[in-house]
Write a structure and sequence with these properties.
The complex is a heterodimer of chains A (251) and B (219).
Chain A: H1 2-12, H2 14-33, H3 44-76, H4 81-95, H5 99-109, H6 121-146, H7 150-158, H8 163-193, H9 205-215, H10 219-248
Helix pairs in contact in A: 1-10, 3-4, 3-6, 3-9, 4-6, 5-6, 6-8, 7-8, 8-10, 9-10
Chain B: H1 6-46, H2 50-64, H3 68-78, H4 88-113, H5 117-125, H6 130-160, H7 172-183, H8 187-218
Helix pairs in contact in B: 1-2, 1-4, 1-6, 1-7, 1-8, 2-4, 3-4, 4-6, 6-8, 7-8
């Protein structure tokens, strides 16, 4: 029961989480009601401007990663050898180096000959995040599809289901239950990796913080706030994943 | 290949390999920090004293929920404010070790949790001291099955250490980028950097997979 254990352990230090949530809500209320002037919070408005870009990047990257993971994951489990090889090469290439390397490649190399593909920083960021996390997601999808009991497939064949119907009604519903927690973890990794797009000139939260460092100074406050912002973005996802894991046993 | 200059590739290769050496140094130093710190974090989180266990738990969650890049910035820019001026490489490896230490602590915890109750009971029955229980009974059994998971994090650190470029550590990726801005040719340096990462990480991942399979067979 290791999964249930993770949820119980989370509950054990729940008062820390509640404390942090109260601080977060206080900051939010402060921001909405009046332009904040109290020490670190006056830095929030410029940071929040970058937050929109960060969320755009995270949502775009997640959607692309999901599509790519489903296609490549099912391809990896395919009977066709060519499809298996092509998707296998994709997965290994993108897992063989980090998002940062791939982002740089897409942003710096693609616009030059022989490719001549000009992408905006946001497009390059979404593409790199989606393709990189999609490669990890493909392995999750493959594992979940392959873990389905053969009897289920045999039963669908015996019931004369078409392959499409079998996918929709038998394989995908069962695989989804298995896939959700690990895919949720990947989404957390993706969210954290969005900060790397600041290095290809995209003005996300991290980029805004880096420019605040140069204009305003107040370095501990700027980067402290930035850490807290990322924590508030990622931690609800962490709790969601744990909740899914704790429920999985009953499914 | 179209537009690929082999002559140029050969010229820049020694510089890239120099960067790779820095990458490997940062990875190994960071990994040593991570495996030592991870053990202490895991033991602290298991502590019966809630004043130790809970803050450590919150710390681990916080570090895991925030990006390595932001942590690098934080340490690199904030520490000098308090008079602690360290070379970028040192700050980078400490941040890398700290970040991955929170990940390895979870590995240790899972490994320790996997030890049967009977082992603890036997140790209690034999009246062993806590130190002897840990070093003589629990850890020798818990650590070998953890090796594949720790190996995966070592590979992860090797790849993610590219982020150290943001705080001016001239590792592989920064070397590639500097060559790019000097020569206006990005194709060869960045592709070669990616290839070097791949050439080291892919075989390592295969080794870890074999180890995993071996431990899976044993249990």
């Amino acid at each position: 029961m290791p999964n249930q254990g993770a949820w119980v352990r989370t509950r054990n230090y729940v008062f820390w989480i509640i404390g942090l949530l109260i601080v977060g809500i206080a900051i939010g209320v402060q921001l909405i009601t009046k332009p904040p002037e109290i020490a670190p919070f006056d830095l929030l408005p410029p940071l929040i401007r970058g937050l929109a870009t960060t969320i755009q990047l995270a949502v775009g990257g997640t959607l692309l990663a999901l599509v790519v993971a489903l296609v490549a994951g099912i391809g990896r489990a395919s009977k066709n050898r060519l499809i298996r090889t092509v998707t296998g090469i994709y997965v290994e290439v993108f897992r063989g180096s980090s998002v940062l390397v791939q982002m740089f490649w897409i942003f710096f190399v693609l616009p030059l000959p022989p490719f001549n593909i000009e992408l905006s920083a946001l497009q390059a960021g979404i593409l790199a995040l989606g393709l990189n996390v999609g490669a990890y997601g493909a392995e999750v999808v493959r594992g979940a599809v392959q873990a389905i009991d053969r009897g289920q497939i045999e039963a669908s064949v015996a019931l004369n289901m078409s392959p499409g119907l079998m996918m929709r009604r038998v394989i995908i519903p069962q695989a989804t239950v298995r896939m959700l927690p690990p895919l949720g973890n990947l989404m957390i990794e993706l969210l954290k990796a969005t900060s790397l797009a600041s290095l290809i000139t995209l003005s996300d939260v991290t980029f805004q913080a880096a420019s605040l460092r140069q204009t305003v100074g107040r370095i501990p406050e700027v980067f402290g706030l930035l850490l807290v912002i990322y924590f508030f973005l990622a931690f609800p996802l962490t709790l969601g994943v744990r909740w899914l894991e704790s429920r999985r046993q009953w499914a | 290949m179209l537009g690929w200059d082999w002559q140029f590739t050969l010229e820049i290769l020694p510089r890239l390999l120099g960067g790779l050496v820095v990458t490997i140094e940062a990875t190994i130093t960071g990994f040593i920090i991570a495996i030592i710190l991870g053990l202490f974090l895991a033991l602290g989180r298991r502590s019966e004293n809630q004043w130790i266990a809970q803050p450590i738990g919150a710390f681990v969650e916080f570090i895991r929920s925030t990006p390595l890049l932001v942590q690098l910035f934080f340490f690199f820019f904030v520490l000098p404010r308090y008079g602690l001026r360290l070379p970028a490489f040192v700050v980078g490896t400490i941040a890398l070790g700290l970040h991955y230490g929170t990940y390895t602590s979870e590995v240790y915890r899972a490994g320790i949790d996997a030890i049967e109750r009977g082992q603890w009971e036997a140790a209690t029955a034999l009246n062993f001291s806590p130190l002897r229980v840990w070093t003589g009974i629990i850890l020798p059994q818990a650590i070998p099955p953890m090796i594949p998971a720790l190996g995966n994090y070592l590979i992860g650190m090797f790849k993610e250490s590219a982020q150290l470029l943001a705080i001016t550590v001239t590792e592989l990726m920064l070397t590639a980028r500097v060559i790019g801005t000097e020569t206006f040719r990005f194709l060869e340096p960045i592709t070669m950097a990616g290839l070097l990462y791949f050439l080291l990480s892919y075989p390592s991942a295969l080794i870890v997979q074999r180890l995993e399979a071996r431990y899976a067979r044993k249990s």
